[in-house]
């Protein structure tokens, strides 16, 4: 029988008590610290003290490189770690590294495929802005945040978007930067994507219909792809929002969707 671990994911900014106390109080087994360079900041004495406190509390502490100034980088790292620990009790501290990291971490927990609980730590006091580090002291309260579930792209949709980002890189047969729908179908079949693999007897015309209903139309509605006509060709193109979605949900190519697909 697998043992459920208490896992905490924490973007590390200029905090001390707001990071350590919840982990200590909830007796975390494993802590992931998201830092800009993947290491504790050695020049900050209180970071060294924080690491010592974490290591004396949790069974294991790991640091992960993450651009904390990039919402989608934080979102992607949190969803990836949560997917890695499916079945564990995963909690995410959204108050450890400022507004941008907080938004990314909160969005990650809103994804219905991410079974993680976000929490916010209210400090007892703040320092005068820019005057000292850490920027707050004490813990007044730790609050679990309400969940407002959102639907993220499916694994098949992420695979198609990742292919659209660079067709040649994913399959040397494709020598164009403007893949057509038949290229998407060929790629889906070569990768065994479920939207076609689950329909082995589908006609060629039927494959185009399934591609449209299961992949293109949902992605168009969410602003991840656009479709334009060039002569007789209908080209599907990835938008900037689609590129960000690929970064945020890349873990699905490795771990699949929450239902295992």
TrEMBL record:
<feature type="domain" description="DUF6293">
    <location>
        <begin position="144"/>
        <end position="249"/>
    </location>
</feature>
<dbReference type="Pfam" id="PF19810">
    <property type="entry name" value="HFX_2341_N"/>
</dbReference>
<dbReference type="InterPro" id="IPR046260">
    <property type="entry name" value="HFX_2341-like_N"/>
</dbReference>
<protein>
    <submittedName>
        <fullName>DUF6293 family protein</fullName>
    </submittedName>
</protein>
<feature type="domain" description="HFX-2341-like N-terminal">
    <location>
        <begin position="6"/>
        <end position="126"/>
    </location>
</feature>
<dbReference type="Pfam" id="PF22665">
    <property type="entry name" value="WHD_DUF6293"/>
</dbReference>
<dbReference type="InterPro" id="IPR054162">
    <property type="entry name" value="DUF6293_C"/>
</dbReference>
